[in-house]
Amino acid sequence: MSPSSSPPRTLPVVSNETTQSLCQSCALCCDGTLFGKVPLELAELPPLRELGFDILEVLEQAYFPQPCAKLVESSCSVYSARPKNCRGYRCKVLRRLEERELDVEQARAIVQKATSLRSTIRELLASAGDCASSVWAQLEVFVKAEKLQLGSPEFSRRHPQLGKDLMMLRRMVDEEFLVKKSEVAAKDSP
Ligand code: SF4
Ligand code: SF4
Hints:
The protein is built from nine helices and five strands, in the order H-E-H-E-E-E-E-H-H-H-H-H-H-H. Helix 4 (92-98) packs antiparallel against helix 5. The chain is mainly alpha-helical. The structure holds iron/sulfur cluster (2 copies). The site of one iron/sulfur cluster (SF4) has 10 residues, from loops.
């Protein structure tokens, strides 16, 4: 850093209300954009079944599929009783906001960009699948119906905008939202 560089900004501690409002404008971790399923612990199955969760069990691993049926207009309809994994989940944007690497406006801008891409892609895929499925499931139906291979030159030629938007959303999911194991280890270890 040169002597004349300005010192790093000190950002204010972010409130729970702010993070909740950010999540309510996003829901990418509930609608199938980031994940296909949410693993559950066996002890939490009875109360979640009572709440009407569609729980699947494979080889002693329980989970429910996403998009989550409890997501209503970008909000969790069982917020106070949500599963342990939902309660503890913080995407990279949220972590960076809480750790004051991002300010609220920067975090909002990332979420806004990703959610607009998701909406635009959904519109471009409107002929395929219903909106109750995830954007990726919708894409799968679209690709099958069009007899195209995803990422092929033919796909890009016939659907240039869709191809670009998909690439951008995937990049954002990987780079801006999903937390890599190495990042968790580096930041969460004592
Ligand atoms: S992806 Fe991140 S910002 Fe979006 S709802 Fe989930 S935790 Fe909140
Ligand atoms: S239970 Fe709530 S927080 Fe968990 S995936 Fe469903 S909507 Fe999201």
